[in-house]
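Box 4.2: Ligand-aware structure prediction
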Amino acid sequence: MVKSMFDILRELDAKRAAARAGGGERRVAAQHAKGKLTARERIEVLLDPDSFEEWDMFVEHRCGDFGMDARKVPGDGVVTGYGTINGRLMFVFSQDFTVFGGSLSEAHAEKICKIMDHAVKVGAPVIGLNDSGGARIQEGVASLRGYAEVFQRNVLASGVIPQVSVIMGPCAGGAVYSPAMTDFIFMVRDSSYMFVTGPDVVRTVTHEEVTAEQLGGALTHTTKSGVADLAFDNDISALMMVRRLMNFLPSSNREMPPVQPTSDPADRLEPSLDSLVPDDPNESYDIKELILKVVDDWEFLELRPDYARNIVTGFARMAGRPVGIVANQPLVLAGCLDVRSAVKAAGFVRFCDAFGIPIVTFVDVPGFMPGSEQEHGGIIKDGAKLLFAYAECTVPKVTVITRKAYGGAYDVMSSKHLRGDVNFAWPSAEIAVMGPKGAVEIIFRADADDAERISERAEDYAGKFANPFVAGHRGFIDDVIMPRATRKRICRSLSMLRDKRLENPWRKHNTMPL
Ligand code: HXC
């Protein structure tokens, strides 16, 4: 019997409904009971209303073992396609935990690969919403191949399009390595975790008792390991932050970052900054106050705020254009550079450079953190990563030294000598090889036991060197500026640098210290 068009359309509707139902009502209810949205609900929150165009809804797995041929769910545990965020094109995959625990089959991986390939082709970001029990156990090695295909694409897309991962459920074993190779990782508190080996394996191998949350929850990864950038209380706030993040990023490395008009005047003065740096050089202050007061509309999206807090990194806008901010934080470890802060900032600088986002650096750094913990932890190589990142980077670089810029750390923090384009200092800046007391104790070692003499000499040394003018005499500082005028001077510098062209010599790739 020939089917009528009506019947054909009804069949299509039924097929679509089956795919949309995912793992069925019971599993959807279980997902909701855990405080989690479903894969499709997440996409609805993430993208502009009615903008999602779904692909591969009818894809099914090809596994015949363990009775799997009788268990097929159209879509096979991942929803893929594209849509928009504030009108800009984004590709998305969202794993559906209600279908085989969101586990990755070969077909599931092929769906992810397809959207990744398109994203690179057209130059648009990929956002991955991860909620998966890992490799589809029934498929074995076919699933492992699927992961590796995704990994390969993560690597080739790196620095070409922004890649963002949101961890919204389990993410374990080798599955962690796809998010790990993306640019940003967000996690949801209490419902997500990431680890290479879970608590049971840990117990067997090391006899350590640890819960999944302690081992790889959102708190762990945003405070201890630095694997994740931000943690959120629920799915909705994590997804809303992805939308906000995307407003700072270009769609690809072929595009300029998006401009957002602002009513905040580029020449706005901020008199309160004149008294930000305390009179006592050993007293601290909050560098975030400076950041908030100089950027457009007080809007600063800080990344990794609870990890290596001695350095602050994040996005803001100046005169409507996105900038990456890197700033030493005097409130934590006096703003010293150490293993964690150097690597944190290096990764951020490299991201900005890859995507044409200018870098504004605020410097108040007494040096590298001393001690065997740091030396044995590899501060030599890790400190070099930040130096390397700043030195190779070709985007506009504007630097403001607010107070201390001592020793090697002065050089590292986007100094003139590492091709800093515009380098300002506040009148309170102290640019020297080291702090006055340390300096005279070395030069006048014979007087080391005479506290009074050392203090006199330190004062003398401070008078001579603890100021911005010695560096200014050599042109290492382009100008000594009034703190209140910081926003105006940075905005002007960035505007002057808008058409900056600078290229590094050709090479296959560098051999940065890893
Ligand atoms: C197939 C899976 C699955 C998997 C879960 N399910 N994980 N199916 N392959 N990997 C299915 C379950 O059978 C179940 O099906 C449904 O998903 C929900 O799972 P539950 O266990 O009921 O849920 P929950 O109690 O919330 O526990 C979630 C979980 C657990 C912690 C993720 O399911 C789990 O431990 N799964 C196995 C994890 C794992 O070992 N994965 C392989 C890791 S190795 P029904 O039909 O009952 O709803 C790996 C290598 C990657 O991933 C290598 C990359 C290079």
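In the box above, the bound molecule is hexanoyl-coenzyme A. The pocket of hexanoyl-coenzyme A is lined by residues 27, 100-101, 103, 133-137, 144, 147, 170, 172-175 (CB under 6 Å).
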